[in-house]
Amino acid sequence: MVLLLLSRALFDRMLALGGAVVIVYEFFTLDASPFHIPTIALGALMIYLGLWRLTGRLIYKRVNKPLRADVNHFISLVRQLSAQKAGGDAKQIAESEVALREMLDRIISAA
Questions:
Q1: In this model, does residue 17 exceed pLDDT 80?
Q2: What is the 3-state secondary structure (H, E, C) of the chain?
Q3: Which phi and psi (to 5°) does residue 100 adopt?
Q4: Residue predicted with more confidence, 73 or 88
Q5: How far is Cα 102 from Cα 96, in angstroms, rounded to an integer?
Q6: What is the distance between the alpha carbons of residues 105 and 111, in angstroms, rounded to a whole number?
Q7: Hey, CA dihedral for 13, 19, 22, 25, is it positive or negative?
Q8: What phi, psi does 45 have (nearest 5°)?
Q9: In the chain, N or C: fewer CB atoms in 10 Å?
Q10: Does 111 score more than 80 pLDDT?
């Protein structure tokens, strides 16, 4: 995991450095090319993406969306159980506890 984070950070730095190289190279080779401004804009975009570490969010898929949805549902079940325990209805509390255990088993199997 640490190696993956280091490679993402290295990729971000290299992207920013590459953008700077593109811009410097374009200024050193000034000519009447119609691609002068778009090339500088591309270099600036590369610097922006590298400095703000956006490439990791744009390229890599770091989120397990089904697991996240299950965890959100688990949290809502915990809130529901807490509200029912304050109310004191034993049947609803038992149903909520069963649903909570099932969701916990589902989360463990998904992880």
A1: yes
A2: CHHHHHHHHHHHHHHHHHHHHHHHHHHHCCCCCCCHHHHHHHHHHHHHHHHCCCHHHHHCCCCCHHHHHHHHHHHHHHHHHHHHHHHCCHHHHHHHHHHHHHHHHHHHHHC
A3: -65, -45
A4: 73
A5: 10
A6: 10
A7: negative
A8: -65, -40
A9: N
A10: no
Instruction: Collect all residues with Cβ–Cβ distance below 8 Å to 7 and sequence separation of at least 6.
Output: none
pLDDT, mean over the chain = 79
CB 74 within 8 A of CB 104: yes
| Residues 6 or more apart whose Cβ sits within 8 Å of residue 13 | 50
Amino acid symbol at 47 = I
